[in-house]
Amino acid sequence: MIRAGVFGAGGRVGKLLIEDLHNENEISLGAVYVRNELNFSIDPSVLVTNDMATLLKGSDVIIDFSLPEATQLLLEQAIEHPTPLVIGTTGMDVHQMNLLKSASESMPILYATNMSLGVALLNKLVHMAAKTLEGFDIEIVEQHHRHKKDAPSGTALTLAHSAAAGRNLDLDAVRVSGRNGNIGERTKDEIAVMALRGGDIVGRHTVGFYNDGEFVELHHTATSRNTFSKGAIRAAKWLVGKPNGLYSIQDCLELA
Ligand SMILES: NC(=O)C1=CN([C@@H]2O[C@H](COP(=O)(O)OP(=O)(O)OC[C@H]3O[C@@H](n4cnc5c(N)ncnc54)[C@H](OP(=O)(O)O)[C@@H]3O)[C@@H](O)[C@H]2O)C=CC1
Ligand SMILES: O=C(O)C1=N[C@H](C(=O)O)C[C@H](O)C1
């Protein structure tokens, strides 16, 4: 039995991970990290700790849905105590992403801004559409619940990277993240990534390709947050036993 450790256990996704792990037979909940006190009930056999080294040593794989600064601390500790990591936290900066890449030299790490099968496929479709629909304007809109802290979503940025790659463009050079005032006409290569926040929207992404006379819009809507927790559990089972390195959700789903 694989022992999973959950980092971010008290969060929206973390709580679902704990529930969903109960229904698994190859993997079970071994340990949870909590910063302060545990504010929910948990099977007494599960190790509850506020010490990251103890979490790492007591787990065969760790699933992380937390905040960028917390993931950074986890990665720093994991370099000292290498353990396979499934990381779903979004909003990481360049330094944190570089840390993640260098940590993956010491352990297998699967990093995915979206753990759903639908978005994994959507990234492939977006790459293909961006390449095929030459000259179409690309615009991305994401919608999430009012509690989400980072913007635009990690998924929207990954989709923007897929679109830019399909056009051989450098996303940093063409990304637009807002429009206001007398900004002039849209430029040919720009890729806009816009964020809307409200209510309890689990996650909705639209990638539009607009031309004179026609447009194509590709949508993905997550209707349940369990899509992410179940996807992360599937990724954790797949990751255990893999060689050190950085893996994507496409690797796990054999969509690469
Ligand atoms: N890749 C994917 O498929 C998905 C990714 N996400 C991403 O996952 C992340 C978490 O989302 P969500 O569950 O909604 O967020 P929540 O805010 O509900 O949960 C965040 C968790 O992180 C913990 N945390 C915060 N700071 C620290 C810290 N310094 N040290 C340790 N733990 C800390 C919190 O602990 P405490 O309870 O003590 O405050 C909490 O348990 C976000 O980045 C989100 O974008 C979300 C859904 C899907
Ligand atoms: O914070 C969320 O809720 C979500 N975050 C991820 C992201 O930033 O892309 C994935 C999902 O859309 C939900």
TrEMBL record:
Q: Where in the cell is it found?
A: Cytoplasm
| Recorded catalytic activity of this chain's protein | (S)-2,3,4,5-tetrahydrodipicolinate + NADP(+) + H2O = (2S,4S)-4-hydroxy-2,3,4,5-tetrahydrodipicolinate + NADPH + H(+); (S)-2,3,4,5-tetrahydrodipicolinate + NAD(+) + H2O = (2S,4S)-4-hydroxy-2,3,4,5-tetrahydrodipicolinate + NADH + H(+)
| EC category | oxidoreductase
Q: Which InterPro entries match?
A: DapB_C, DapB_N, DapB_N_CS, DHDPR_bac, NAD(P)-bd_dom_sf
Q: Where does NADP(+) bind?
A: R35
GO MF annotation terms: 4-hydroxy-tetrahydrodipicolinate reductase; NAD binding; NADP binding; oxidoreductase activity, acting on CH or CH2 groups, NAD or NADP as acceptor
An individual GO BP term = lysine biosynthetic process via diaminopimelate
What is annotated about its quaternary structure and interactions? Homotetramer.
Q: Which protein, by its recorded name, is this?
A: 4-hydroxy-tetrahydrodipicolinate reductase
